[in-house]
Amino acid sequence: MRIIAGSRRSLPLKTIPGLSTRPTTDKTKETLFNCMQAEIYGCYFLDLFAGSGQIGLEAMSRGAEYAVFIEKDKKAAACIEDNIRFTKFEKETKLINKDVLYALSELEGRYRFDIIFMDPPYNHDLEKEVLIRLKDSSLLKEDGMIVIEASLDTDFSYLDELGYEIRKQKIYKTNTHIFIERKNV
């Protein structure tokens, strides 16, 4: 696993062994960042269920101004910390080793993000819980975007009733990226 573009291009990143995380492949990551590239430069980026931190670090390498990583698992958080140190992004990042919903409450009123990315464990409806929490939150800027990596069978039929709309969707063999934003009221 590595950073694929930007100022830290080709730097290898650590990942935690085992099946507790699903590192995004280079090809999928390339497609993801091609879809977001116009919004990355100078943005504040929030990486939820951050795993190894590779998505937030890729955003930083491509010109994001600041990234916050939230990861509950202690081994994964230690891996993120190592990757942040190795890529020399200590001053432009923050790592929070807590449950995502609890951490979002802590961040409220202190940060505003242009992009919120989440790759929660599949088939636990955690993306819905996070979207409910973000619905009336000030964490997402007015014109901000939420990107969700999810399994192909994840139900997003509730987005409309929560006040979100799909901007675009990329479908891969085993998963999808859904780009959503708040509806203009």
From TrEMBL:
Highest taxon in the source lineage: Bacteria
GO biological process, alphabetically ordered: rRNA methylation
Entry-linked InterPro entries: DNA_methylase_N6_adenine_CS, RNA_MeTrfase_RsmD, SAM-dependent_MTases_sf
PROSITE patterns, sorted: N6_MTASE
Keyword Nucleus: no
Keyword annotations from UniProtKB, A to Z: Methyltransferase, Transferase
GO molecular function annotations of the record: methyltransferase activity; nucleic acid binding
UniProt protein name: 16S rRNA (Guanine(966)-N(2))-methyltransferase RsmD
Native organism: Agathobacter ruminis
